[in-house]
Structure formats: C-alpha cells, structure tokens
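Design job #97: recover the sequence.
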C-alpha cells in the first residue's frame, strides 16, 4: 500500500469519525470509541472525545486526542513520533535511514533533549533537573568528554579523556574560582585557585606529594619548592614593604 493510499484511508476514517461524533453529541456525552490508524508498521490509537472541536464547514477534524502520533515520509518510513509515556511525554525525530537523531522528553525529573549522530550514538544531552541545568557532550564512542552544569553553589565545567576519566575541572562558587587538573591515572597534578584573599598555584608529583606552590596575598607573594622527601628546598618571598627574602 502506497503512502497516498494510506492517507486516503486515514482521511475517510476521519470523516466517518466526524459524522459519528456529530450524531452522538446530540444523544449523549460520552466517549464514542476510537480510530486506529495504521501507518506502515506503526499503530496509532486515537481516542475521539465528544468535546473534540470540529470544522463543520471544512469537513476536517481540527483537534484530535491521542496517546501517540506518527509521521511518515513518502516511502512510509517513520520520521517523527509524538507520544505520551508513563510520567511524561516524548518527541522522537528520525533521519531517512530510520536512525533516531533527536529526542525531546518531559518527565517528573525535568525536561531533557538528546541529539544523536548518524550511527545512533548520543552526542549531546541537555537537561534541567532538580539540581540544575546541565549540558553533556559525548564522542563517537559514547564517552562523555565535556560537561557544563550549574547548581545552587555555582557553575562548573568538567573535561574528560577518551576513557571517560575526568582530567580537568573549572569551578566557580561563593569562595572564588578554581581549576584542577588530573593525570591519566586519576591523580591530582595541578590546581589553580583564585579565592577572596589569596590566589595560588599548586603543583603535585605522580605520588600526590606537593612539589611547588606559588601564591599572592595582601601581605605579599611567595614561591616554595619542595623536594621528593617533602622538605622545602627553596623559597622566595616578597613582602608588602618591598623586601625580598629567599632560601636556597
């Protein structure tokens, strides 16, 4: 059956439903029944109610109540589906190959939008949940590579490697800004902080031991270098009175 034939059947059934509804409205106010529309392999149940608004002069239904609607292309392939699900509603959009490319949903945890590539892999996700809005970006293997979010404490940005391990995080809250870096083993290797009183840079070795610190505050600035045994091997300090002190 061609798409045109399907549409002709659909139109006839809608007109018949309209006539049944017109007669029933004069007898009683109750649900008359349903109209099953077969589109390709999809079945859509349309529950026609007495309060449905009809265009009597045009002979067409202007409003139809349903739990699902399917839109097909000229080949009969599903290109869009709008449906009511448990706890919410969803809209799915498909490409010419039948691959899901866009998914929009509203549910009890908040609305969400998913974008998929030509292989059906999720590549971007936008959601607004109870904790706050978030944007996640994924690579071609489905691994999360970037996450932008904001919550009651402030915004944050996280970057991940090809294994899905977090490698960098940027955060802003009431105490200031901070940037943290991790190595491929998940160990912290550097952090940069800009607090209310003193910005600072901290460098850590592969064992998690502090090796260098650079800071600046209202009393002056300083640099400290630490050896592998955890002992200060050199430091340099510049006080607010312009005096310079060092130890090597």
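Job complete. Output follows.
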């Amino acid at each position: 059956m061609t798409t045109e034939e399907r549409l002709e059947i659909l139109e006839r059934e809608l007109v018949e439903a309209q006539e049944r509804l017109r007669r029933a409205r004069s007898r009683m106010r109750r649900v008359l029944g349903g109209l099953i529309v077969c589109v390709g392999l999809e079945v859509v149940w349309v529950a026609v109610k007495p309060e449905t608004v009809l265009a009597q002069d045009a002979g067409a239904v202007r409003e139809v109540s349903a739990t699902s609607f399917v839109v097909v292309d000229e080949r009969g392939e599903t290109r869009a589906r709008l449906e009511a699900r448990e706890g919410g509603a969803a809209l799915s959009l498909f490409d010419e190959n039948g691959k899901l490319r866009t998914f929009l949903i509203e549910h009890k945890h908040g609305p969400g939008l998913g974008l998929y590539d030509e292989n059906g892999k999720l590549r971007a996700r936008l959601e607004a949940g109870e904790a706050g809005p978030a944007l996640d970006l994924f690579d071609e293997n489905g691994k999360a590579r970037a996450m932008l979010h904001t919550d009651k404490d402030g915004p944050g940005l996280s970057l991940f490697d090809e294994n899905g391990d977090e490698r960098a995080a940027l955060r802003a809250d009431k105490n200031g800004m901070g940037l943290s870096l991790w190595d491929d083993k998940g160990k912290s290797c550097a952090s940069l902080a800009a607090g209310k009183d003193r910005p600072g840079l901290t460098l850590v070795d592969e064992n998690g031991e502090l090796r260098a610190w650079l800071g600046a505050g209202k009393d002056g600035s300083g640099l400290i270098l630490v050896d592998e045994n955890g002992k200060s091997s050199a430091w340099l300090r510049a006080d607010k009175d312009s005096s310079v002190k060092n130890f090597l």
